[in-house]
Amino acid sequence: MDYFDYASTTPMDARVLDIYREVAEHYWGNPNSLHDIGGSAKEILDRCTDTLASLFGVPSAGLTFTSGGSAGNAAALIGLSHGRKHLGSHIIIGGAEHASIHNASGQLQSAGFEITFIPSRENGLIDLRRLQSSVRMDTILVSIAHCNGEIGVIQPMGDIKEILRDSAALLHSDLVQSFGKWPIEEAIRHADSFTVSSHKIHGPKGMGALYIDPSIDLLPVQRISGTPDLPGITAFTAAAERATPMPDHYQMLRNSFFASLDSKMGKGYRVYEGPVGHQLPQVIGLAIEGIEGQWLMLECNRRGIAISTGSACQSGMQGIPITLKSMGATERDGKEFIRISFGPSTTLEKIDRLTDTLAEVRLSILSGGVI
């Protein structure tokens, strides 16, 4: 099967898998134990923490390994909000955030916090004017993802931080979709906390990391504890070291995809994308006019091609995707939406087969054929 759903998850790198097996077999001790077996495991854990912190350019003291991006987002929002409740109870959330952010914001609302959601503009960028007008004296936290997972728009983190400069609000950013795919130095420089995930960069599932500036107070209950998954942590660190953004390569594939699609079906589709310099090229959000995304996904699957209809973390939810809703799209737009995402196995030949399939299914619909 040709895989075009890399924004959802990635296969484990063979070298990373070898490292996972080696650590699981030879370093199975609990790093929290005081004997030598635990001590050997602790040395590896500390080395991984230092390595990942060095990759990010942040102090090791602020880095914690988590069970994934969603867990990290929840821990960050809940921990930071309760830790700063003495300063206020107002929180700002981007309308196109990952489902884990929206779920955590619901918990915070139940706990008495006030949440303001900031919509995106038609190009997917956060509405900076709305953000600026929403910041208040009692705003304690703002959460804006660096890169949207459904259409791949990169947010202007420097501009966002500038709006917050004179406020007491901290900035949390979900870097899950941009880490390893796009330069993240600017986002890290401006964020007080951020999350990343292993399975998006060919590492093991169930593993991620959360960074919170160590000078920020957190409630003790929100600090993540337990027995560390040392094989997962080591494999994740190895995957992070190997992750290299290749925007020029994926921009070439993106351009080839649209050139091929145009030649086979004209302009019978709509693209959801950001302006130049604000688009992750390997993520394509689009709608084929007149065809429901669910039907199209199933037809592609029947023909040996894997695409998606948006974030897998909300695929069981009904209604318009969060991102499109934030952009003001209609329910029909949401039903027609599909996401295509590229990875290392993506070739020009596979892209040509994909566009053949999309054009074939559309022609079948328009000619009254049965899907």
Automatic annotation (TrEMBL):
Report the domain of life of the source organism: Bacteria
Which residues are in the Aminotransferase class V domain? 3-214, 220-354
The prosthetic group or cofactor this protein requires is: pyridoxal 5'-phosphate
Transmembrane intervals: none
List the keywords (alphabetical).
Aminotransferase, Pyridoxal phosphate, Transferase
Q: Which GO molecular function terms does the record list?
A: transaminase activity
Q: Which Pfam families match?
A: Aminotran_5
The family database entries (SUPFAM superfamilies) matched by this protein are listed as:
PLP-dependent transferases (SSF53383)
Any coiled-coil regions, as ranges: none
Protein name per UniProt: Aminotransferase class V-fold PLP-dependent enzyme
